[in-house]
Amino acid sequence: MRQPPVRRPIVRIGLTLALLTGPALFTAAPAAGSPPTAAPPGEREASVLLELGTEAAGPAWRRAAAEARRAQRSPEAVRREAAAAGAGQRSRAQGALDRLAAAVHGAAPTARELYRTRTLLTGLAVTVPADRLPALRALPGVEAVHPIVRKQRDNAHSVPLTGAPGVWAGPSGEAGADGNTGQGVRIGIVDSGIDYTHADFGGPGTEEAFKAVDGARPAPPGLFPSAKVVGGRDLVGDDYNPDPSSPAYQPEPHPDGNPIDCALNGHGTHVAGTAAGLGVTADGKPYAGPYRPGLDPAGFRVGPGAAPGAQLYAIRVFGCDGATDQLAQALDVAADPDGDGDLGDRLDVVNLSLGSRFGSPDDADAIAVDHLAELGTVVVAAAGNEGDVHGIGGSPGTAPRAIAVAASVDPHSDADGITVLAPDPLAAVVPSHWSGRYQDWATADVSGLLAVPVDQPDGCAAFTEADRQRLAGKIAVLAWSTRESERACGSGPRADHAADAGAIGALLAADDDHLAEIAGNDRIPVALLGHADGERLRTGAADGPVQVRLAAPGNTLHGVVPQDQPQRTDTLTDFTSRGIGVPGVVKPDLAAPGETIWSAKAGSGTGGQREDGTSMATPLVAGLAALVRAAHPDRTVEQVKAALMNTAGDTWLGDGGTGPVYGPERTGAGRVRVDGAVRTPAVAYAAGEGAVEGAVGVSFGPVPVGGAYRDVREVEVRNLSGTAASYRTGYAAATELPGAAFVVTPERIDVPAGGTARVRVTLTVPGRLGRTPDPTIATFQGGRARSYRGELSGRLLLTPESDPALPGLRVPVFAAPRPASDLTAAAPTRLTRSGALAALVGTPAPAEQPGLLSAFALGGEGARWPDCPPASGAAVGPGAGIVPEDSTEAQAPDAVCVERPGDRAANLRAVGAASDAPAVPDGQGTLYLGAQVWAPAATPVGVFAVRASLDTDGDGVTDAVVKADRQRGSDVLVARTLDARTGAELDVQPLNARWGDTDTALLDSDVLVLPVRLSALPGVKPGHSTVRYGLWTGAATAGKPDPAEAFSAIGLRGTRPTLTIDVLHPAVDVRTGPGGPAAVAAALPPGTVLDIHRADGDPSRVLLLHHFNRDGRRGQILALP
């Protein structure tokens, strides 16, 4: 590969961002109180996948198969020619990788090879010192460098809800006659392995059998491979954990051929049981059928999975604990399990209960998933467990061809139990969820009286002496919110504070009946109670002594206490992530039950365990996809996905199917119903201009509207049967937006046998556009108004007319129109030496607010990062945006390029500062820091965010750091000011100086304002009011940000801020008019005349941010006369 066309090293910023941000990754919904996992700041080692330009085996195999089919070869000839092409190309890829490996070790002698991929792409995964990456990128043949982002692991009642038993029985209703349990379909479980000794998979079903297996050696004959778990491999080994922040850090994989799970976590076993477990009968035996509707849940220790007749293939990518960086290799194995270049043995379905938040369709992992799907494998991935936060949906579920799954609620859960012993009117076994960290529920004896603290009711701070006396020797009853944004802390701190106060246990009384998993601690037992039970015990304790038993020797109340809540069916879990709505792609795709899912427990022989998470919903859909593949083996990946989505049903905000229906950004098409997916003779999906291949839903994405607007998308309906069909079209709204509408035409379509028809979906905005929230969101989170964007969404409906007995079809439809202004300030007119006037001109936004303006003294400008040229060198590492202390240059010396245009959201374009102190009473002023970047971000606090460093006392040392942030688990977006030395919080203000109930166009934007109260800044006072500042972008991680890790910076030398503003007497003071307030987040129409004052002789220019303008036109630099 030729050398880069520039002398300075090029920082490929897409790689840099992914390596340094270490985005939080989801597994099962985390037990409340669990510490988050994050990459440590300043990590100097990088794991990357070096992609060669040499073609991989997969594309060669696919091309040869297509050419043979076009030549009308026999099926056997097609198979043979494709296999030969794939094997030959795999050999060539292996040779290229051998040469690359030698070159890598020459360029980076300490490099550790992780694995090689030869099927989806030709790649070499290595861990190297970050400063050696430029040398690796310049090696001959290297086409791209992909970051390897570490990932962590994310049924008796849920399966019947999806309609699977009806498919098992078949059209005749007689199990086994013409039924379908997924036989002949192989499901890959990319996870922590599978305990194939468990009875749910046909194993011996004893703890002894599990303990007898040495995971580092071949499995005992007859155990693996088996009729159920037909193959697999362990890519990592038991002690593998590539997370440097973990005490158990061990990054060296030790692969072997035995993919047995660990009892410590058992995530993969639980997932596999949900997808395709046989079921375990009440007497501890593998269930042998018949599989039919109406199976009695009481007859099972573990109910059958969604596709009990399917086979399982275990690809182990996790050790017994911790994270993984092996996803790309696992996908390569799924494409060619025996590694011979013949992809005819690729897996039919792959389950990925893992992912990273704030994903994008063009993430590297998402692209790899699309490659696998193109080869013919249905990939099902978790949508994430981060809650109702804008843009947080997980990758690789963001891949257009993947099926991303949200988590809904089914009518039943198997809870744990606590026993109320006295008084008699309250005596009962009460459903609860036990804390996961306490290990002595069945061995310790913990009984006592209840006590309710008065001074600290939720236990999120150390108890007062009076409360300590109340709790000592008793079981504390503490308040708990099921909404993360409303919680002051998790279950761990509450358990610690209760134990410190002398409590022997704790009950968390929730504010509704959602019983999530909780962590607690290992010192005392803690149980979570639903609202009604918690209130009853709290009230009882106020009236007199209430005695409760938590733990007891031989305790049998784990997972056996029924909790029937049919009214909650088809509502959503609190943790399931809001997805993405970008041009061409709206996610998630489907919802499935993912709360309190009971499935096989590794190491138990016959037992089960309960888990929450989209990780649990995902394998349910994977099993259902196997049923569709078994019923229609000739259908493509896209058609299987469309059938599942087209036949889904609504999910609701309220109990009993009441209240608003959730829109596509929460549940995609809706809750899955496989019986309709198997029966439908037709499928419908987005097509034509604006459609993304593999996506089913229609997404216009964010749409700036400056006046009357109209745009059209199309949906193709394909008849897969030999009989003509006709459908009546319609539309069911989920979220509405005043002034905008979808129009569906024509009213009726005829679809010939084996043919297609098109339906048009037209987005229309005749004039003025309103803004209303999605009716399912909480507009206040943690007591503050959240940010939101106006959205128009629902489902295109196709109702069968030719045969009303056929399933109706639905397709998600989404758009986010927003009012857009086209405003600028005319050249200022000078009145005096220190004063000027500038009039706003242009077109106002067609909304209640005609525009929104913020004005600053310009601090500096930053260059636009160019696209990366082919074969460019790459320097990837912390501090790409920092100017060295001894440099005479104004900007960082390294040239920077981007592989994804969206990464320019971390590329500062212009910054400035303003103060409103001259316009407000003494001491009440605010410092405003403005920033414009080179590309819009879906949210200002996503993968990366804007930060500011402030030197408030003039000693050359940063005293405070301001970061764009969010309140915990919410879309309450804030500027959080921290003490640079201690990390203590000094101030919290809303981004753009307004809370979310005022539209400041904060989402999908390339500008923002960071406000800081002057009274919160140490050292600022009359006579000492000059503040040095610098703005930079960095990873949106928790804690005190480090400017040494900046991606882009303006006004920093080293890590010291260099720009200045006198916050009490600013050199530039822009008002909304003579004597008016400071022009910050000011709603101003055209014709407004800005009153601009500046200090005598000051040469400053003015940075204007027009918040409502279109992308790239929001910033304006105004030269003063």
From TrEMBL:
Region (Disordered): 65-92, 223-259
Signal peptide as annotated in the record: 1-28
UniProt KW keywords: Cell wall, Hydrolase, Protease, Secreted, Serine protease, Signal
Pfam families the UniProt entry points to: PA, Peptidase_S8
Alphabetical list of Gene3D superfamilies matching this protein: 3.50.30.30, Peptidase S8/S53 domain
Biased composition, class Low complexity, residue ranges: 83-92
Start and end residues of each Peptidase S8/S53 domain: 182-651
Family: Belongs to the peptidase S8 family.
Protein name: S8 family serine peptidase
Naturally occurring in which organism (per UniProt): Kitasatospora aburaviensis
